């Protein structure tokens, strides 16, 4: 790590002098980080605080702060972070609430309305699809989800169809591109919307963006990060997101869902399949919107790109609707038996 030259900012001289950044941290991010630490009076111990970029994040830049006395994560929001349909205030509230249940990193400090915040740094393994598909991981993830879903989150309600439409509008505005089959698949998705709206399926505190990298496997638990889309929602959305984004087969999905609800029925499976399909289209639309806006600003995980993410998800959507005819799914997904957990 090479210490960077000091950047001009209105923070105190002491704060600025003690902040050491890796070379790839942009000047604007350095200035914001210094100002935030100064505002929060965050100067632990006597030694320098060292900053590096943490891969991941689409409408923010994540930094790791290291100091002899500890390690923290600092999320710095883009000025127009809400372009992605997020509520930065609700996101911080949701993470803080989840942390109170032991399901997320604790929020240490925040800056509103900008949405910057600092949390504890959770040591563990950032999961990828193959990790989630491993039989030993599924019970741990199900336990985490059931704990979250047992609560309610009133500050925000989440509708996956409204979210998808928002991404599509953003992509249209920014000139994003879609795979050729997307338009036909979106027409099918709209047929499912009224069915789910009238189903009266269980709702609760949902994360609503459970791509694998938003899970951290710790020594004694699995924690979640990035609560940007958290809100009161259909519980089946999280189950659809996990199983879809982990690229589970139908058999793997059924096994996972039965861990969540031992009395799993075919209507629950159909409801999750519908939402897997809708969520895959949501991920495609998000990538179409985010790539032209964020590609030059985001530090990506190794082997991941916006285009590859869109390609994976369009294939998921195509395969799902090919193997599960839309009429058949629609006839089952809207029926909710008494006592169904999702």
TrEMBL record:
Pfam families documented for this protein: Choline_kinase (PF01633)
One example GO MF annotation: ethanolamine kinase activity
Top-rank taxon: Bacteria
GO biological process: phosphatidylethanolamine biosynthetic process
Keyword Transferase part of the UniProt annotation: yes
Keywords: Kinase, Plasmid, Transferase
Assigned GO CC terms: cytoplasm
The protein, known as: Choline/ethanolamine kinase protein
Protein species of origin: Rhizobium phaseoli
